[in-house]
């Protein structure tokens, strides 16, 4: 019995993944909508009619009321802005929302881990911060990939500090900037000092992150396998829905990833395999999903915006695939 059941589960894995998502008791609709804006809406001019967004997400089990509520909250939180067109309304990213999306997109569609200049970027708090402000700062810097060496010292191997300070201001933390000291530190190479690897282990929980990457691989490897061997007939709408979930899950992973260079990561780090899997699966889903967007993504005036040619540059510079066939 087992020898028969296993192939059936794998061959239907794309549909099983979608069904599993629909069965969730609670969907974070706002986060999913942000993923859709970054991946599908932004390459088509960054605007979408609310009715079109509702139609695109309904097959994932998101009811109209849930989508409307999530969009209104994103407007309140200054991720999105509204734009009237007759009796209908388009929604688009705010400047702050676009900055966050651009930062995430740079990571999502990157071809490889960054090279390291062997310098550490530090942000140190100067003087006392209220507990509430300290926690807000910690969460915001964690969003940007910083690890914590203490309550007063945050570290990253390669982030642009000016960009981070600009982002903190855009996120409502501008009042704390004069209490933060940004530094770039080079290793003094003292033989008895703590190693870079020891600092990484102290600042980040890589075991937890590795587990998240392995769960991602377990979730999407069967989907890729079924598309490779042709055991699943991929409709255009299904290609779009799978693309949404793939990028949404991968984006949430990268928000937890400090983007460490390979030299600072353990051997056989699963993040690289996850990147390669995402690249190949995305490419296999792209054509069908774009046909679905041509049919369903509309502006409030009824027009269909064309996709930018830059869409097809995503993952383009990656090395040849190393995933097992």
Task: Report on this structure.
By secondary structure, the protein is of the alpha+beta class. It has 2 domains: 1-113 and 210-257 and 277-325, Arc Repressor Mutant, subunit A, CATH 1.10.10; 119-186, Alpha-Beta Plaits (2-Layer Sandwich). The protein contains 12 helices and 7 strands. A 4-stranded antiparallel sheet has the order 5-6-4-7. Strands 1-3-2 form a 3-stranded antiparallel sheet. Strand 5 (147-150) and strand 6 (153-156) form a beta hairpin. Helix 6 crosses helix 11 (236-256) and helix 10 packs across helix 12 (270-296).
Which ranges are low-confidence, i.e. pLDDT below 50, for 5 or more consecutive residues? 1-11, 318-325
- The total tally of domains equals 2
Range of helix content: 40-55%
* First-to-last CA distance: 26 Å
Which helices and strands, and how do they pair?
Elements: H1 2-11, H2 13-22, H3 29-41, E1 47-49, H4 50-57, H5 64-76, E2 80-85, E3 88-93, H6 95-108, E4 119-125, H7 131-143, E5 147-150, E6 153-156, H8 161-173, E7 180-186, H9 196-203, H10 206-228, H11 236-256, H12 270-296
Antiparallel strand pairs: 1-3, 2-3, 4-6, 4-7, 5-6
């Amino acid at each position: 019995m087992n020898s028969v059941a296993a192939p059936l589960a794998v061959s239907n894995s794309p549909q099983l993944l979608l069904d599993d998502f629909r069965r969730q008791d609670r969907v974070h609709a706002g986060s999913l909508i942000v993923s859709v804006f970054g991946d599908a809406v932004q390459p088509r001019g960054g605007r979408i009619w609310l009715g079109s967004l509702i139609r695109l997400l309904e097959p994932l089990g998101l009811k109209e009321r849930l989508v409307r509520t999530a969009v209104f909250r994103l407007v309140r939180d200054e991720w999105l802005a509204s734009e009237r067109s007759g009796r209908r309304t388009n929604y688009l990213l705010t400047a702050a929302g676009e900055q966050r999306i651009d930062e995430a997109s740079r990571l999502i569609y990157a071809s490889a881990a960054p090279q390291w200049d062997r310098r550490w970027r530090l942000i140190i708090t100067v003087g006392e911060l209220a507990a509430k402000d300290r926690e807000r700062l910690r969460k915001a810097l964690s969003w940007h990939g910083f690890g914590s060496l203490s309550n007063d010292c945050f570290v990253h191997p390669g982030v642009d500090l000016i960009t981070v300070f600009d982002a903190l201001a855009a996120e409502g933390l501008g009042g704390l900037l004069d209490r933060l000291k940004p530094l770039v530190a080079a290793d003094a190479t003292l033989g008895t000092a703590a190693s870079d690897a020891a600092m990484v282990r102290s600042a980040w929980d890589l075991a937890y992150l590795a587990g998240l990457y392995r769960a991602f691989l377990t979730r999407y490897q069967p989907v890729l396998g079924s598309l490779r061997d042709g055991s699943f007939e991929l409709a255009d709408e299904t290609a779009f829905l799978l693309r949404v979930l793939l990028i949404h899950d991968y984006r949430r992973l990268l928000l937890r990833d400090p983007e460490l260079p390979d030299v600072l990561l353990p051997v056989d780090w699963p993040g690289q395999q996850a990147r390669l899997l995402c690249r190949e699966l995305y490419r296999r889903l792209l054509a069908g999903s774009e046909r679905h967007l041509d049919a369903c993504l509309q502006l409030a005036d009824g027009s269909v915006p064309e996709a930018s040619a830059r869409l097809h540059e995503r993952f383009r510079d990656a090395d040849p695939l190393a995933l097992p066939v």
